[in-house]
Amino acid sequence: MAKERLIEALNDLVAVEIAAVTEYQQHAYLINDPKMIDLLEDFSMDEMAHIEYFSREVARLGGIPTVIPKQIKHAGETDNELLQRDVHVEADAIKRLTEYMKLAEEEGEPKIKKLFEDVRADEIVHHDMLEAQLNPPKDFWGKMKNSMDIGSGLILTGLFWLYFWVFQWYVFFLFDARWAHNFAYPLILLTIGVAYKGKKMSTDLLASISAFMIIPTETGLISGTHSTYIVSIILLIILVLLVTERGKKQELLFFQHRSRRWLKKHLLTFAFLFLLHMPFLYWVTRVLFGEPAELNMPPEPPWERAHWGTASYNILVIPFALIGMAERFRGTLRRRISMSKIGYWWSLLTIIAGIIVIGAASGDWLRYSAPLVIAVIILILSIVAQKK
């Protein structure tokens, strides 16, 4: 049979992946860290996809896909023992895939070589995430690098937004309470960011409800003041839930695997979708067709210099929300770049660009120099941490 060596290699990988699926599922049942349960089950689903990819290629080459796994080893019962075994399995898979990439090239199968490259990239992501859990960084730069995700980006954006309205522009709210939505929106960003970090189904659900408040607020159906009260209460409940559920193996909201996996993925997807309504309603409803309810929302025409900051944010938040949704579905860009990392960098770009636009519109650079310098320092520290 032609391509026998390649069929043998593919079936070897199928056997490795079948064993990996079984071990990941077992470890998800045994591990005590609730955050790791979902991660291990997600990795198990990735390995199932790899089985399908390899098996289809075996059949295409005229072989019979194996159903016999490699030897399954029982690693132990402590979290460290389970994770050490998982890291070893991933390292072994990476080594095999690296060798078989050369074989595919020798056999003149660029399609299969590309498949091996893509799966190898998946396994490297698995390996690095497990290694980070097993050996978390103890130095400042390592901890900072680990924290650089879209959740941190949301929190930073929300904090900068709040800073401007609490310390710089609070007087505008005192003269016109319709500006209160500028307290609600950053609190919503903080809520989504905290929920993203917390990785609990209950907090994800509340974050989605908080993000939904953008729609009635931006359309003027409710006042910014009432919206601020609502999202503040939601954020407080989320913080209480995170403290309450800390260390518990089973979450407050717990469903069977299929339902839990769907909800874990899509609850925050809805949050990012609602976040996308902010620029949509601003540009389509408020700018093109006029303010729908001026009783609750002040006019913010983008052609007026005073509102350039609002207009620029409502442009930059579009790709940010799309990145957030993409991260929930795929997680990586072309299997190599973390969408969550991209979201973090985009949030820094949004903050810095927004402050520059505000400074240019007002001409008062001295007033906005402090937050701009702080944002640039965070950017520099992030670059150093990434390179380290």
Tally the helices.
15
Characterize the largest beta sheet: strand count, sense, and whether it forms a barrel: 2 strands, antiparallel
Portion in helices: over 70%
Radius of gyration: 24 Å
The dominant shape is elongated
Series of H and E elements: HHHHHHHHHHHHHEEHH
Structural class: mainly alpha
Q: What is the distance, rounded to the nearest whole angstrom, between the alpha carbons of the first and last residues?
A: 49 Å
Q: Could you give the order of strands across the largest sheet?
A: 1-2
> What's the number of domains?
2
Q: How much β-strand is present in the residues?
A: under 5%
**Total beta strands:** 2
Stretches where pLDDT is under 50 for at least 5 consecutive residues are: none
Summarize model confidence as the mean pLDDT: 90
Could you outline the blueprint of secondary structure elements for this entry?
Layout: H1 4-30, H2 34-60, H3 79-106, H4 110-134, H5 140-147, H6 150-168, H7 170-175, H8 181-198, H9 201-212, H10 214-218, H11 224-245, H12 257-289, H13 308-329, E1 332-333, E2 337-338, H14 339-362, H15 365-387
Antiparallel strand pairs: 1-2
Helix pairs in contact: 1-2, 1-3, 2-4, 3-4, 5-15, 6-8, 6-14, 8-9, 8-11, 9-11, 9-12, 12-13, 13-14, 14-15
